[in-house]
Specification:
It is built from six helices and seven strands, in the order H-E-E-H-E-H-E-H-E-H-E-E-H. It is of the alpha+beta class. Strand 3, helix 3 and strand 4 form a beta-alpha-beta unit. The radius of gyration is 18 Å and the shape is elongated. The mean pLDDT is 93.
Length: 170
């Protein structure tokens, strides 16, 4: 058995699972493709962040209005998102894009951009004082993450064991 973990856009993951290049993937549930099975995994919470070098970092949430958010340069994902997440992203001045959360985090950490990140992904930077959530009670969304496999796939003991263990852990 060989495990290969890679980061790519959700669309690329779905296409590679569909054509058999990947056995399994994890993607946000946006618009399911007919040839794939989607197994619910968990809900991912995303918050709007800025870094220590950003002008909003030291301002109290009560002093940051919608106009401040709309005027701040933002990085937005270059991949599909569910409608609630899209609505949150559209309220931003998306002048930069990234294909993955690592790229989004990199740009936020420059101090020039704000952007949404999953709270668990940002947690270590928050603990270090490098990132902070902006108005987390209002500026957040959830994305359902799913495990995706190809419908009608050939039996694969390793994959079936993995999926069984994943279901038992959930």
């Amino acid at each position: 058995m060989r495990i290969n973990i890679g980061m790519m856009t959700p669309s690329d993951i779905e296409l590679k699972v569909l054509d058999g290049q990947l056995h399994v993937g994890v993607v946000p549930l946006v618009s399911p493709l007919a040839g794939l099975d989607y197994i619910p995994l968990y809900e991912e919470d995303s918050l709007l962040y800025c870094s220590q070098g950003h002008p909003l970092f030291w301002r109290a949430d009560a002093d940051i209005g919608d106009a401040d958010i709309a005027a701040a340069p933002a990085v937005i994902p270059g991949f599909r998102l569910p409608p609630e997440a899209q609505q949150s992203q559209q309220a931003l001045d998306g002048c930069a894009t990234a294909s993955d959360r690592e790229g989004i985090a990199f740009l936020i950490l420059t101090g020039r951009y704000i952007g949404y990140l999953p709270d668990h992904f940002a947690a270590s930077w928050v603990a270090q004082g490098k990132l902070r959530a902006i108005r987390p009670q209002q500026l957040h969304y959830q994305v359902p993450l799913t495990v995706v496999t190809r419908k009608g796939r050939r039996p694969n003991l390793v994959l079936e064991t993995f999926l069984t263990a994943l279901a038992a852990a959930g």
